[in-house]
Design goal:
- The N and C termini lie far apart (153 Å).
- A 4-stranded antiparallel beta sheet has the order 1-2-3-4, covered by helices on one side.
- By secondary structure, it is mostly helical.
- Helix 7 packs antiparallel against helix 8 and helix 7 packs antiparallel against helix 9.
- The chain contains 9 helices and 4 strands.
- Strand 2 and strand 3 form a beta hairpin.
Length: 371
């Protein structure tokens, strides 16, 4: 009895030892082929069952893995989110100088309403509005300066800033070069290739002006982005306040200051109203700068144009030495062997340019040169 039992146990042990994955797969394949030969419908049902079990196993493994990594991802997102909030708070931090100009602007605004509505003094209101524009412009200037200074401290911002400003400088130079060439052609009706030195000099001098326009455009882009960043939460805050009336105010205070809201905190404090002025301060800076630039352009436009034309004439035009059909004291520039560009002074102190025919001859052949 013991011998037969031992024999059976040995056979069972050998059978289990032979159940390798390869043998099991072979056995399952042979069984499936046999079932398919006997009953194809049963084989199809087995296929669906096997596919369903495999799909369930994949779903189970995926869900299990999600539950494992979700806490880590959630912690990372929360950490990155609060880190971004801290960086944003530092980016929008108001320096004492900027706050001073904002508070001065905040004091001027009610005075303007008093002077305009109660006293009805329009000239006094205009003076106060000009002062308000100046204080807001100063506040915007120092505010932008603080933001740029904060960005410069970042290594990635330095690289991006260098690439950005180098690209803007190159684009500004080419735009200035194209503008100078077009202006010269409209003024002289001569291709700019005849004025290489003047074109390069004028483009170099005009590049900083185009550069400032690009910087102004970037600043206005920052203003628009800030407007959307401020207006979007303000637009959805009434909806969220109906669901979370107290919590929303506490979270907003925590995001803005990094501290818990005190129990005695009252809304609409002067410092809390500064963000409204920060929306309009860059716009005031741009308007003030445009007003000053237009005023300077109106007062110096004639003098600047006359100076530019005089420099062009001095650099490229010379006294007549070979044109018999033109006065001897005429300023001209030879374009080809038969054509010259002639500049003449007007009674108003300006200059006119024209093209004249002038066959190329020697100086001694000109009768105006020989007495």
């Amino acid at each position: 009895m013991t011998t037969s039992r031992d024999w059976m146990m040995n056979r069972l042990r050998l059978f289990l030892a032979s159940l390798t994955p390869q043998n099991i797969n072979i056995a399952l394949a042979v069984t499936f082929i046999a079932i398919a030969i006997i009953s194809p419908k049963m084989a199809a049902i087995l296929i669906y069952i096997i596919m369903g079990l495999a799909l369930l196993k994949i779903i189970y493994s995926t869900i299990k893995r999600i539950f494992v990594i979700f806490p880590l991802v959630r912690k990372k997102i929360i950490t990155r989110g609060w880190r971004m909030v801290v960086h944003t708070r530092k980016f929008y931090a108001i320096s004492p100088t900027t706050e001073l100009f904002f508070l001065l602007s905040l004091l001027i605004i009610p005075v303007i309403f008093v002077v305009l509505l109660i006293w009805q003094n329009l000239s006094g209101a205009n003076v106060l509005i000009a002062i308000l524009a100046i204080t807001l412009s100063c506040a915007a200037f120092f505010d932008i300066k603080g933001k740029v200074s904060w960005l410069i401290k970042k290594a990635w911002a330095r690289v991006i800033g260098k690439l950005l400003f180098a690209g803007i400088g190159s684009v500004a130079f080419f735009i200035a070069l194209a503008g100078i060439k077009q202006s010269l052609y409209q003024m002289t009706q001569v291709d700019a290739k005849h004025f290489p030195e003047f074109v390069n000099l004028a483009a170099t001098l005009y590049t900083p002006i185009i550069y400032c326009y690009f910087i102004g455009f970037l600043l206005m882009t920052m203003v628009v982005i800030e407007w959307f960043a401020i207006m979007l939460p303000m637009s959805i805050s009434p909806l969220l306040s109906s669901f979370y009336p107290g919590k929303l105010a506490r979270v907003s205070y925590r995001l803005r200051t990094g501290k818990k809201e005190p129990s005695d905190h009252t809304p609409f404090q002067p410092r809390d109203l500064l963000f409204l002025l920060r929306i309009f301060a860059p716009l005031a800076l741009v308007i003030t700068f445009s007003y000053i630039a237009n005023g300077l352009s109106a007062t110096t436009d004639g003098w600047l144009n006359k100076t530019i034309i005089s420099a062009l004439i001095e650099m490229h035009y010379h006294d007549n030495a070979d044109c018999q059909n033109l006065p001897w004291n005429t300023k001209l520039l030879r374009l080809d062997k038969d054509t010259v560009s002639v500049v003449q002074s007007t009674e108003t102190g300006g200059f006119t340019f024209s093209k004249q025919r002038c066959p190329l001859t020697s100086v001694m052949d000109n009768p105006q040169h020989n007495p």
